[in-house]
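Continued from yesterday's entry.
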Amino acid sequence: MMRLVRWLAVFAAMCVAFSVQTAEAKRLKAAVGFPKGNAVNQAVEGFADYVEEHSDLRVRVFSMSLLSLKETAPGLRDGIADIGFVLTAYFPAEYAETNLVANLSMLATSGERKPSPGMAMAGAMSEYVFNCAECQTEYKVQKQVYLGSGASPSYMMLCNKPLRTIADLKGKRYRSGAANFSRWSEHFGGVAVSLPANDVYEAMGQGVVDCNMMSATELSNLSLFDVTKYIVPAIPGGVFAGVATTNVNLETWRDLSVEERQVMLKGAPRANSIVISRYHALANENLTTAAEKGIEVIAAPADVLAASDDFVNRDLDQVGREFTTAYGLDGVKAKIARFTGLLEKWKKLTEGLENDPEALAEVYWKEIYSKIDPKTYGM
């Protein structure tokens, strides 16, 4: 009987200790402006799982419930969330230094073309921003700590009219989501049309636009299979890179222990690799499905590719002027040159990793995150 009493006493003490430990565990809120099942949501959930597995932190992921995509940056700044998926492109002035290099994304698909330019772009973005004092300052002003970037698959032409020659590009109406894509279409004699993504289906179906410049992921995400008859994968090129996948509120970060910050630094490249790899896989799957549905996939001829590359190189000066004049950035030419070199480096580092997110995360860790000191970064 006494043995049973002692055992019960020990068990009760263990339960109390566990309850105290659980009560003391830091609970963090992560905001994602995408629904469950989306690659971004899966990436942030993977980040949360990694953090919970390797620390006493507890992370709850809120999908499209705590903050919308446009609300995430200010909400993270104000402490409504502790972790957030931030689209820097939504805030051109607040994140001008980051957006400068994000606007160079067409370099990712010019020159030597790789199967997954988003992997190279994300690596170059992350390495650049982590080591850019001006970039770090703008995140600090927004009370955030940057933990790396993701990027979309290559942008392509999803059309209801065929584009087979340079002459075919002229006179078409192109839905554009960014200034560089608008300049591309106008350079080739087209008309740039600005439309929200959710209006693209109706616009293509009614002939308001001839082509939509987006990645192949949107064929399923926006149901564009129904209104697309032709796809030209190689143009206009570029990726969407104005992304900070798992930014952390500054006060939250500084309240963490060194060990907890290190866990987050180890989890972040995994999150980036998940979102990039899953978008890449979905884009390829959608291109296969498109062919099965009778949508013609057109290989752009060599002269179109060369003309597009020429535009991209010439447009670097325009990007520089825009960010110097509109946002008052200094040393823009040197920054563009530095990023261009990083992007070429990352094209080589990510080669052959298109279907291996674990290997991609390891490369990101080795080349970037392992060199960040959790004792001082963000402090």
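--- second protein ---
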Amino acid sequence: MMKNGRTMRIVLNGALLLAIVALGVTVYRAGTREEGMLDQAQLEEMTQEELIPEATPEEENQETEEENDDEVQESTVDAGASDVEAELPSETAAVDGDAEETQETVQNEAAAEMVEMQAQEEAAASTAVDVNFTEDSLMEWPLSGELVLDYNMENTVYFPTLDQYRLNSAIAVKSDVGAPVVAAANGTITSITESAQTGLTVTMDLGNGYEAIYGQLKDLTAYEGETLAQGTVLGYVNEPTKYYSVEGSNLYFAMKQDGNAIDPITYLP
């Protein structure tokens, strides 16, 4: 009986010991797990600065210099682009201006060449015309028409418009307004004037002191200094001035030798 009781105590003590050992193992495992969980939480809570090692002063200086270089390069590129953009309009404007100046210069040169060629042609034509009127020369009528007033420096001639008799140093050839008037002989135009009596008047040097005067003209086709060959149109008959209103439209035609009036009829066929 005592032996059985002793055996029972041994079994209970062993079971108690096993329970204590099991409890210790369980507590140890729980503590290990809790420490692991704590380490994981601490790891997650670490800041970026704790995970990334701090840069040394040399590395910071190097990074700052690199950033400054990058900023300088970007500023240089931007400034260069701005300069290019600023220069492009001015260069374009300069090119357009040069093109316009070149075109204008070409046009001016072409116009000057044309004027020079025309002057040369006229000079050649003038040279070809022989201006050498003499006492034996014969003119042609400057236009066809009725002689309404005759030349007379010895006896007076009646002027219907003025209603008086007076000497007449020219002839008046009746014609329609707009009729062409031609050069009666080779000659150079020495003057173009406007007169109350004879209207638009052209004087031509025929050479050797002879002159021909054409009055009551309009729409001249010749200019002062031009040399015309006999038969060349120089203008057209105009409306009569107030001195010839009754006589009607006509050509005033006169001649002079050394400044003195002579009879044009003498040299007309």
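The two ends are 198 Å apart (CA to CA). The chain is about 45% helix and 25% strand. Will compare against the first tomorrow.
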